Backbone:
């Protein structure tokens, strides 16, 4: 038995490690392709990009684990079935469940590890990743002079150069429109050649211009002629502030309290507090509109009816003609006030419920992703035992197809929850509860050596049905003939 356990574990560990890192790499690349446009041209260092990838990798581990378990379990039991190890074990009286037992214990451990990562590492990594990603997206493009093109990266200066050296800082035919005085297009500088370089703190760029001229309009009046100053120079230095282009880090404490940055116990604390606030909202809404109900019908259980004696069953007929119009006007105004108040309160309450649901979604996600490891294992292991195909061909296709189904159900459930159309528990656990019976069914069929994916069985089944219809048709024809 120990040898069998070691055989199964060794057969699983290798494919699991490979598929885990492949799955994690694919998920990280998906993130990178999504935000690649926000990173290009920002002058980010390799260390900054590496940190962002590392933080995102940690946040994606709980998502990569179920996919890796599904793929590796199909590969493992597919290889065991393809090389007749499962047949040998069954001939020795060892059932498929007994063969799967060491991996079942391993899956329990992986579920615990996935929960610990989701509950402790993922919030910390999410804070750092979100802060760094916000800083990257907010950073301005790096200052760069392009040959034979206007550079407008600085908001108050436009520069055009030609003849720029590829590996140097020397440029020719310089044209600068300087708008830093906020007086419009009144200052232009030209030079035959020049050289630019950055200060040590990277906050300023200095231009040494040679053989040029500076044209500046001194006054901007409504008449046709404007005084202008022309200054020729053989050498001049201009300094531009580029401190806004420098990549700066934000304070991580600004993101604390967000539902993706909290542990399970912190999420539960926020949920309880917000539920209490929701009850107060309902109570305040009722308290606010209650004074507007001067009269009420006895069908409203929460409001006491006002008992008065009327000479006419129609209430409006009991009001004097001089006060009737004013009474109707005030009643309409009160009705409009109540309607507006109720509509505003309903919108505010709906938005608050959606926010509470976001916190509940994250709380359940820490458990659903961990439980998905066990569910997908019981889908993948018997599936591989039935298919009896190892390698990265068919198992890869099957696992991706099954994981896409799981992911679509999960995303659909979350979307329904966010729209306040479903219970949070039902929406978050729908994917697991749908695939779990399918996994139990596959496990049962695998223990019975069912040939679910043998095309010859289905061909014989449909052939029997076709022959049955043909036989029935011939009998009907024989009864019709005299």
Residues:
């Amino acid at each position: 038995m120990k040898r069998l356990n070691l055989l199964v574990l060794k057969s699983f560990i290798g494919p699991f490690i490979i598929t885990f890192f492949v799955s994690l790499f694919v998920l990280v690349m998906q993130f990178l392709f999504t935000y690649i446009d926000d990173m290009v041209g920002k002058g980010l260092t390799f260390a900054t990009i590496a940190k962002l990838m590392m933080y995102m990798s940690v946040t994606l581990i709980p998502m990569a684990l179920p996919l890796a378990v599904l793929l590796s379990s199909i590969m493992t039991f597919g290889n065991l079935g393809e090389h007749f190890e499962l047949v040998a074990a069954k001939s020795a009286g060892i059932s498929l469940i007994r063969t799967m037992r060491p991996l079942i214990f391993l899956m329990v451990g992986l579920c615990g590890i996935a929960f610990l990562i989701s509950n402790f590492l993922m919030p910390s990594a999410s804070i750092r990743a979100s802060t760094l990603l916000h800083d990257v997206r907010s950073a301005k493009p790096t200052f760069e002079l392009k040959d034979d093109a206007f550079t407008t990266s600085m908001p108050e200066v436009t520069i055009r150069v030609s003849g720029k050296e590829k590996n140097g800082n020397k440029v020719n035919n310089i044209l600068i429109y300087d708008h830093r005085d906020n007086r419009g297009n009144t200052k232009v500088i030209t030079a035959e050649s020049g050289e630019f370089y950055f200060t040590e703190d990277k906050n300023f760029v200095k231009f040494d211009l040679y053989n040029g001229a500076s044209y500046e309009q001194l006054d901007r009046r409504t008449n046709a002629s404007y005084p202008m100053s022309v200054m020729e120079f053989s050498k001049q230095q201009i300094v531009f502030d580029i401190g806004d282009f420098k990549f700066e880090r934000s304070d991580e404490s600004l993101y604390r309290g967000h539902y993706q940055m909290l542990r399970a116990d912190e999420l539960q604390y926020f949920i309880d507090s917000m539920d209490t606030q929701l009850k107060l909202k309902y109570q305040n809404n009722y308290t606010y509109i209650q004074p507007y109900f001067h009269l009420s019908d006895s069908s409203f259980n929460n409001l006491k009816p006002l008992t008065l004696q009327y000479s006419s069953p129609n209430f409006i007929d009991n009001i004097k003609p001089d006060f009737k119009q004013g009474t109707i006007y005030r009643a309409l105004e009160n009705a409009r006030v109540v309607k507006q108040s109720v509509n505003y309160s309903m919108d505010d309450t709906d938005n608050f419920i959606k926010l509470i649901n976001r916190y509940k979604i994250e709380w359940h996600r820490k458990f659903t992703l961990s439980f998905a490891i066990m569910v997908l294992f019981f889908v993948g292991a018997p599936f591989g035992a039935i298919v009896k195909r190892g390698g990265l061909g068919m198992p890869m296709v099957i696992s991706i197809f099954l994981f896409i189904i799981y992911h679509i159900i999960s995303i659909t459930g979350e979307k329904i929850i966010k729209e306040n159309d479903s219970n949070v528990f039902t929406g978050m656990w729908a994917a697991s509860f749908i695939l779990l019976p399918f996994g139990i069914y596959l496990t049962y069929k695998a223990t019975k050596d069912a040939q679910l994916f043998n095309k010859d069985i289905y061909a014989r089944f449909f052939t029997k049905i076709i022959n049955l219809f043909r036989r029935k048709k011939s009998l009907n024809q024989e009864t019709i003939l005299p």
